[in-house]
Amino acid sequence: MRILIIFSCAILFSACNLVKLLLVSEERNESKEEISQFLIRNNFKYDFSFELCDSLAKNLSSPRYRINEMDSMGYSYIQLRIFDSRGEFYTSYSQCLGSFDRRNFIRTLPVKKNNHPHLNKELKLVNEFEILDLDDESKDLISNHTRKFDLTFVVYWTIWTNHFSKRVLRQVSKIKKKYPDKVCVILVNSAK
After folding, report:
1. pLDDT value, residue 69
2. CA 83, 130, 46, 116 torsion-angle sign
3. Chain-centre distance of CA 99, in angstroms?
4. Distance of CA 128 to CAs 17, 46, 88, Å?
5. Is the pLDDT of residue 114 over 50?
6. CB 84 within 8 A of CB 161
7. Going along 63-143, which residue ranges are E strands?
8. pTM of the model
């Protein structure tokens, strides 16, 4: 019985569930206008901003698209996926992998690699375009743009996750401001 209680508490207070428990806002859809105003008000720096289509959001937990190879419980609304100039996986982070601040891996270039043992190293930047359901012209435009940079940061975030998303967005924005010619930033609002 004691083991069952400990196991239940461990699952309940995992990083992903802790985010859900500590949210001040309720999970909800976010309008284009609300997203735009939030990004302007916080002065975040980025190259592109998209909204994740509700019907494609579930793909973030499928083996082809998920960050953590071992995660079969869903996906984190807060994710940072980093790709090199060829669109190949460089490193990634999600709230489910622990404290973003303690990992401290995107403060400067070169970006430190996340040492989590089960990262999905098969992720590709082109797969992100599939999740976003972009037309061919948009895919080509973004692909050509990202090739000009050493790294592309794809950030999945929501307004309703409050300071958890803001923390990641602030750090990504700082590195974009510091290295505008080396880092491309694509923001994806994953509210649904």
Report:
1. 64
2. negative
3. 14
4. 25, 16, 11
5. yes
6. no
7. 79-84, 89-94
8. 0.82
Neighbours of 62 (CB within 10 A): 10
For residue 139 the two structure tokens come to 């895919």
Phi, psi of 162 (to 5 degrees): 50, -125
Query: What's the CA gap between 180 and 153, in Å, rounded?
Result: 12
Tell me the per-residue pLDDT of 19-41, one tens digit each, with 9 for 90 and over.
444 544 555 567 788 888 988 99
Q: How far apart are CA 161 and CA 166, in angstroms?
A: 8
Average pLDDT over residues 98-107: 66
184, 150 contact by CB (below 8 A): no
123-131: average pLDDT: 88
Q: Where are the alpha helices (DSSP H) in the chain?
A: 2-12, 15-22, 32-41, 54-57, 100-103, 125-132, 136-146, 163-178
Name the strands in the sheet holding 151-157, side by side, starting at the edge strand that comes first in the sequence: 48-51, 183-189, 151-157, 79-84, 89-94
